[in-house]
Specification:
By secondary structure, this protein is an all-alpha fold. The protein has one domain. The protein contains 6 helices and no strands. The chain is elongated, with a radius of gyration of 20 Å.
């Protein structure tokens, strides 16, 4: 794929990632569809990160921007592992859950479930560390890019730092409130802006031609 096509591909992937995540977090859906969506979000997230890096490096490449892309790709790869492990654990434990009448034994089963669930809770925080750090570094790059500007960059930096700090403070328990949906909305805004930039660039190229 040529470097000129990466930003457009990343914009479409970002739209799918943001909308898919918001739907996953807030809407009821059949289990199979939910699993399929969870498996696909890391893949589209990686394409989004690659496209955003390709767009921003046109104006100014830097070590920080390259680290942002690297951490973003690692983070969404961890998300893939999280999705596979979490769903596998849930399906196996649901299929093999014993019908227990004894309250003490039921308490033991719940304790085992909570202990096993700590695996994907830890993976979730690992995902947060990489992806939120990536978004902060991308936000810093956006501050200097006139196509995004200080507003996009500042919101990304503050939101990324606040979400990461909250997740680390409550580790391994998911935080309340969860700022993840706000990060999803910011990602959606970035993807829309990326698509808009490519539409304007194509229009300029046509007018010059």
């Amino acid at each position: 794929m040529s470097s000129e096509k990466w930003p457009r591909t990343g914009a479409y992937a970002g739209l799918f990632t943001a909308i898919g995540y918001l739907a996953f977090a807030s809407l009821p859906m059949p289990a199979r569809l939910r699993h399929l969506l969870f498996f696909s979000l890391p893949l589209s997230g990686i394409l989004f990160v690659a496209g955003l890096y390709a767009l921003l490096r046109d104006r100014r490449d830097s070590i920080a921007l390259q680290i942002a892309a690297l951490f973003g790709i690692i983070g969404f790869s961890v998300m893939n592992v999280l999705a596979v492990v979490q769903i596998a654990i849930h399906l196996r434990m649901t299929a093999r859950a014993p019908d227990i009448a004894d309250p003490a034994m039921r308490g033991l089963v719940r304790w085992i479930e909570d202990s096993v669930n700590a695996v994907h809770l830890g993976l979730d925080v690992s995902f947060d560390i990489f992806v939120l750090t990536s978004l902060v570094l991308f936000g810093l790059a956006m501050i200097r890019d006139p196509r995004f500007g200080r507003l996009f960059g500042f919101i990304g930096c503050v939101l990324g730092v606040a979400t990461l700090a909250l997740n680390l403070y409550t580790f391994p328990i998911p935080p309340e409130p969860d700022l993840g949906p706000l990060v999803g909305l910011w990602t959606l805004a970035i993807a829309i802006r990326m698509a808009w930039c490519k539409v304007n660039q194509s229009a300029r190229e046509i007018s010059r031609g």
